[in-house]
Design brief:
- It is a single chain.
- Helix content is 6%, strand content 38%.
- The protein is built from one helix and six strands; from the N terminus they run ββαββββ.
- It is globular.
Length: 142
C-alpha cells in the first residue's frame, strides 16, 4: 500500500455526464447529440502529484506513446479514461502546495497489479497561473 504521507494532495474527480431535463431525459443539441456538463463525482481524494521531468517526457515521446507531463497516484476511487482530475489548493492540506490545475487522463495503470492504487499518466490542461487553455470546473472544486 502506498504510504499516506506520499499522498499529500487532495483532488476532485470530474466526469462529463449528460444534461437531463425535468423528466430525466437527455437534452439534445441541434445535431441530436446529448449535451453534457461536468459533474464532480469524488472530492478530497488522496493523491500524489508528480510533474515529469523534461528527459522523461522526451523519452516517452520517442517511444511513440501518448505523452503525459504528470504522473498522479490515487487510492480508493474508480476512474474512467475520460475523467479529469482537478486540484484546488484552497481544499488541499499540502504545504507547500501546487497551483490550481486540471489534468486530463492519458493512461490508467494498476501500478502493483493488486488494485490498491492507481498510477495515472496525465496531461496538465488548465492552470490559471500559467495561462493554459481550459477552465476549472464551476464552484469551489470540492
Amino acid at each position: 500500500m502506498i504510504g499516506l504521507r506520499f499522498l499529500n494532495h487532495r483532488v476532485s474527480v470530474l466526469r462529463q455526464v449528460p444534461t437531463l431535463d425535468q423528466l430525466g431525459d437527455a437534452i439534445l443539441d441541434d445535431y441530436g447529440q446529448p449535451e453534457s456538463e461536468t459533474d464532480t463525482i469524488a472530492t478530497a481524494v488522496a493523491a500524489g502529484i508528480q510533474p515529469r521531468g523534461m528527459r522523461e517526457i522526451a523519452a516517452l515521446h520517442e517511444a511513440g506513446v501518448a505523452v503525459s507531463d504528470t504522473r498522479i497516484y490515487l487510492q480508493g476511487v474508480a476512474l474512467r479514461s475520460s475523467d479529469a482530475i482537478y486540484h484546488n489548493p484552497d481544499a488541499c492540506p499540502a504545504d507547500p502546495d501546487l497551483p490550481e490545475a486540471t489534468y486530463d487522463i492519458v493512461g490508467l495503470g494498476d501500478a502493483a497489479g493488486a488494485g490498491h492504487h492507481l498510477q495515472i499518466d496525465a496531461r496538465l490542461v488548465s492552470n490559471p497561473q500559467l495561462g493554459y487553455a481550459g477552465a476549472a470546473p464551476d464552484g469551489d472544486g470540492s
